[in-house]
Every structure is written in C-alpha cells, then in structure tokens.
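REVIEWER CHECKLIST
Item 1: Sequence provided? yes
Item 2: Single chain? yes
Item 3: Sequence as submitted:
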Amino acid sequence: MLVLLLITMAALAGTIPVLELRGSVDPGSADYIVKGIEAAEASGAPAVVLTLDTPGGLLTSTRKIVQAELTAEVPVIVYVAPSGARAGSAGGFLTMAAHVAVMAPGTTIGAAHHVQLFGGGGGGEDAEEADPAMDEKILEDTMAWARAIAEQRGRSAEWAELAVRESDALTDGEAVELNVVDLVAPDLETLLRLVDGRVVETASGSVTLRTAGLIPDPVRMTFRQQVVHLLGDPNLLFILIVLGMLGLYTEFHNPGLIIPGVVGVLCLLGAAIGLSVIPFNAGGLLLLLFGFACFALEIYTPTFGALTAAGVIAVALGGVLLFEVTGFDLSISPWILGTVTLGAGATALMLAWLILRDRREKPATGAEGLVGMIGVVMVGGDGGGRVSVHGEDWAALWIGDLPEGRRVRVVRMDGLTLEVMLLGDDNDPRGGS
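Item 4: Structure as written out by the authors:
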C-alpha cells in the first residue's frame, strides 16, 4: 500500500518510479520488483525503470520477475547501470524481458548458464554432480525459455540460447549490435530522453512512451524485503556462520553465559535462511565446521596453537569455497574473509588460553584449596589438636608435641581432619591466617 501511494504521488508530480536491484536475484528482490511493477500499473505511471547490477540468482525468483515484466500493462525499462555493472545470469533474462533494454557504457550482459539458476538450496555439489539426463533436460528447458523471452520482445533468440548453452557474455556495444538490448545511455536522464516517443507493446496494447523531462523517483524496499535480500549477501552469510559457530563454541565451553549461545543460534538461523536463497558449496561449509572443530580440540589436546592455526586455515578455505558454485559469480570480500577469519581464530585461541589457565590454577576452595595453606595451632598437644586455617577452626593431626601459637602448613586433608607439619621458620614470609 505504501509503495502504491508513493508511485501514485510520483505520477501526479511528473515523475517516473525507479526500482533498483543491487546484488542477487532472490525472494526479497523478486517481491520488491513484482510489487513495484504492480504498483506502477495501479497508479497509472507512464513507465517504470529498473536499474540493474546483479551477478545472477535463483530460477524461481527470476521466473516471477520475468512473468511480471511480460504481463505488465505498464512499460518496463531495464537499465544496466552504472558503468561497471553487469546483468549476469538471471540479470540477462530480466533485461531481455523488458519492453526497453538499455545499458550504460562499460557494462556487460550474459553468462546465463543454467547451473547458476538451479544452485540455490541444494548446494554447489548437487549442481555439479547432477544426473546427466536431468541436467540435459534442465539445459534444454532453460534455452527454450530464453528463446521465448527474446522472441516475444523481438531480440536475438540465437544469442539468448548461446548465453545459456555456452555462458556467452557481451559488452554494451556488442549487445546493441547483436540486438540484445536497444541502446546505450550514460545516465538515467539521457535514457528517458532517448526512449521518449518509442512505441512498445504491453499486455494492454501499444503504448507510446512519454518520458522526456520526467524526474526519477526512487522506490525503496520495505524492511521485510531488505531483510530477505540482505540474507542473500555472501559476505553477511559468512559473518553470520562464523559468529554463530563462535557463539555456540563459547557457550559450550562456558555453560551458563546464555548470551553467546542465544546470539549463536540466531546467527545460524539467519545463515540457514540465507543459504536456502543462494547456491553454496557443501564442501566449503564442511571446511568451516572442521575449522571450529580444530578450535575446540585445542582445549583438550593442547598443541601450543597448532590446531588453532589449522582451524584458521580451514575457515579461510571454507570461506573461499563456500560460494564457489560452477557458473555462479558470487564471492566473499577478501577484506571480510581475512578480518573475520583472523578474528575468529584470535578469539578461539584466547578462550582456549583462559580455560587452560583456569584448569591449571591451584583450587582456592575445598579440600584441594586448603593443601599448602598456613595455619596456627589453637589447641596444642602430642600428635594432634586444633588449628586455625584461613580463619576456620579445624581438627588437626601432626607428628610430635606442638604448643599453641606455632605455625604449621597443611599437607593433606582426611575427611574433616587436616594433617599438618611444623614450619621450620616462624618468620615464613607467606604468613598465617
């Protein structure tokens, strides 16, 4: 409702709604784009612009957006921008399905191999080890779909098939030359001027674009759409996985802290949702688990940091491989990979050191805590009496006859009786109770 209200106000003010896709095509971005097109139709907007910069995404989400474009009653203009952007994989389908397809200088389109679109949820290994017969069926179906989109929009069906079969990609100039997109525009203002007067076929009939002079009006994602879309970001997913494992690792070795465990579970739940949105490599995930197993073993089999070092290497390799899925161009930023990995290793090493230090410290309470403490004989006698140790009165046994006031050291505890021995020097600097 809010999106419809904003677009209606924009239409009345002589503006054009502009949607923006940055990152993967996923359920969050699909919901945002489909509802944006529907709102533009309902408000009577002259057209709707979708600026695009994506490496690809899920087939299910791509199909929803393409269907919304092909059945739209309002002209949809897809603009691959800014310079350096790409319409990779799923982005190629979204661009070809537009009524008007435009690219900024220095952008690319293509590499739409079907493996990219079927990787989500099943993991990278499933995509790479799929049954050959099923893989061939998927390939043929995807190529047929690409040809159908291109033919409906009067674009090159030959290249659409080539992009799927051989992951072919084009620059902006090549795309115009091969009739994959309509034109190249350096900015949105120029684009609106260049497409003004163009006649396009929408689901409701022919429409003449009147876009010159319109003011772009950005339409933002809702909070829910942003959350779902963010969970498809490889960098965020890597951080969530590492923080989740680190939280559970901390809680496991320090039961009762509660907060690390709760935070860890929440992070891993968020990561699980994200991994159901974009394709991942199961081998990379297993390396992450192995890395944290090395961190845990450092505590039980101290290796002076060797296992922690192995864990850091495993986590780093896991991060590199986590989104290495054939044909799908997603990766984790090297800065985030290095910072998070080293931070996790340093935290694990510090926790291991603290736990080992506490285990090696002499107990301060109980029977073991009393052994070695200094006391004073309160009731003397031959072979035993009573002593004061740490402000407490204890029955004690000793060898020989000790008078009151002599200083003794606890050497053993038998039940509720202490065995003590006389200090050789009453001026012992360790003092008494």
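Item 5: Key structural point noted by reviewer: The two ends are 76 Å apart (CA to CA).
Item 6: Recommendation: ____
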